[in-house]
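Our preliminary data section would be incomplete without showing what the modeling component actually yields. Below, a chain of 485 amino acids is followed by its predicted structure, encoded as tokens that our downstream tools consume directly.
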Amino acid sequence: MSSAIEGLEPGLVWKHFAAISRIPRGSKNEAAAAQFVLDSAREMGLDGERDDFGNVVVRKPASFGRERAPGVCLQSHLDMVCEKNADKAHDFAKDPIELVRQGDILKADGTTLGADNGIGVATSLAVMEDRSLDHGPLELLFTVDEETGLTGAHHLKSDFVKSRILLNLDSEEEGEIYVGCAGGLDTMGTWNVVLEDARPNMIALDLRVTGLRGGHSGLEIDKGRGNALKIVNRVIMALADAVSARLARIDGGNKRNAIPREAFALIFVPRSRVNRAKKITAGWNTTIRDEFKAVEPDLNVTLTEAQDAAARVLKRKLQKQIMHTICALPHGVIKMSAEIAGLVETSTNVAVIKTSGDRIALDTSQRSSVASEIQEIARTAKVVFELGGAQVAQGDGYPGWKPDMGSPILKRAIAAYESLYGKAPEVKAVHAGLECGIIGEKYRGMDMISIGPTLQDVHSPEEKIHIESVPKFWKFLTTLLKSVV
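Predicted structure:
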């Protein structure tokens, strides 16, 4: 057991969290984690099965005398977002997550923690193991590939889950109950790379934007954090205008559902203008740090001479198309909800750009709790890409989850929380994609809420879980299960 969780309560939850933290489980690489769940179920004497797509369900019989209670499904996702700091040596395909405890905070050493949604998985495993709990028939559903399009939930079969009450364990604030979420759609543009030789008198330079906080592109989109792709593009455009900088490659961001924290560009500048280019970049570093001083204290923009760079650059027209597209693409909050105070209704994230072989690909993601607004902001992104000469593709998207304030399980949850803590929980919707929207379409009549302990800065290496929120969440969950009759 990791020393970082030694002595923490509830012991079963932390035991299982430490166990799954040792298993690589990035999106589309969840097979080992799924097998761990099935092996654990077998050791506990429970029935489990895996569908053709990799989703797992484990069935736990009711406690004695509770056999006639309605069935409840606890749902979490096995995969995690794999983000690390540039200076961290870590292979998400084989290395375990290194847990670090700092007072009431548990985080990872230079990588995402995977508490999104590892703490939900660990909680379900603890429910599976704990024979002292009082509950009706339970199903523990573990989906795959949530973080790259909720595709595991999309592939659930109609007979895989029997329950018609679902507790999603993927929310991130103890004391809050979520009853709705945004839907989403991805819009991607690609350009065929056309190169030419840089002029003989040009010097290769590395332009780097680092130190940003990043974060979840739904939950943190309203926090005013910097977008590394937008920032690096501003500097490239300024250098192109001032010193005729030519772009050779550009890379930044890692996940469509994460605000990009870092971006890198290889540019060529005439030898006689290198010093001026460095002064201009230093000026932009000062300007942009001042713009984001309240939220991005570690932001840094640097320009240094590159080593062993092939002197090939993008054609001028292509460079201009790409730069203008990044400039024109909207990023951030588009509209706040007029019905729910503080809720982002519609947003878009300029997420990832990669130079690979003969193409440059730029990925964006759009979210909204209003279906027509998803289509409108996605259309905006598509048109900007088209005007910039890109080939455009869009994903299938996923539906939002409309709040049902008359939900029976919501009423039970409110009553359970009040009985424990003497105050009502907050009932909210979230500007992020939860699998509840898809599950609600797959299993008509499913009565759903989403709950969880307190997490912060998910989808970034600053991801953390507040330790003291976990026993409160566990007590709430187990009390709620007992109340379902």
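The mean pLDDT is 96. The two ends are 37 Å apart (CA to CA). Preliminary results of this kind motivate Aim 1 of the renewal.
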